[in-house]
């Protein structure tokens, strides 16, 4: 797999312990495309925040990402990457990973023939190299609209039977079998996969220009 060699990424790897506070294999796969040395330490955060306490899905997913990143802090110079992804259906309901196959079937029936929006919150916490300053927190939310074609019950049941929806927010994986069901996306493809690469790169670039790396 080709990797992108960006000079200031080497500086980050040399100066910081870079931690991905997520066990998502999709996020690891995308980060592996950068010449950025990192380790995976999944957050212990239970992701049990009360959705009703947040004004929007973007606020909710960002708070999840911030909490995941904060969960990995230590007294060493760190760059911690926290992220969380949810899907919001056309009625405004936040859809996370399904609790059961029947839950996945119901979710996909609700997405059939309609649009949904994928929100990913990203939080970067940058520790002070000399230990004299508070950590810098950079945060962002990316939104991508996904339009489903019409799905009949037999297709939905066959898809759920593959097991693919069971660990996916919104009960589908656009980068895999669900690509056959999606008519259109508006926004960042990789955000739908679970990590908005362009937004992440811009966040790192902004921190670099601000002199934090």
Please, could you describe this protein's structure?
The longest helix has 14 residues, at 57-70. The protein has helices at 7-15, 25-31, 57-70, 101-111, 153-161, 189-193, 197-209, and strands at 17-20, 39-40, 78-88, 94-95, 115-126, 136-148, 182-186. It is built from 7 helices and 7 strands; from the N terminus they run αβαβαββαββαβαα. The mean pLDDT is 90. The chain is elongated, with a radius of gyration of 18 Å. Helix 4 (101-111) packs across helix 5 (153-161). The chain starts with 6 loop residues before the first helix and ends with a helix. By secondary structure, it is of the alpha/beta class. Strands 1, 2, 3, 4, 5, 6 and 7 form a 7-stranded mixed beta sheet that branches. Helices cover 32% and strands 23% of the residues.
Radius of gyration: 18 Å
Give the helices and strands as they follow along the chain: HEHEHEEHEEHEHH
Give the number of helices: 7
Query: Mean pLDDT, rounded to whole units?
Result: 90
Largest sheet, strands/sense/barrel: 7 strands, mixed
Spatial separation of the terminal alpha carbons: 26 Å
Query: What fraction strand?
Result: 15-25%
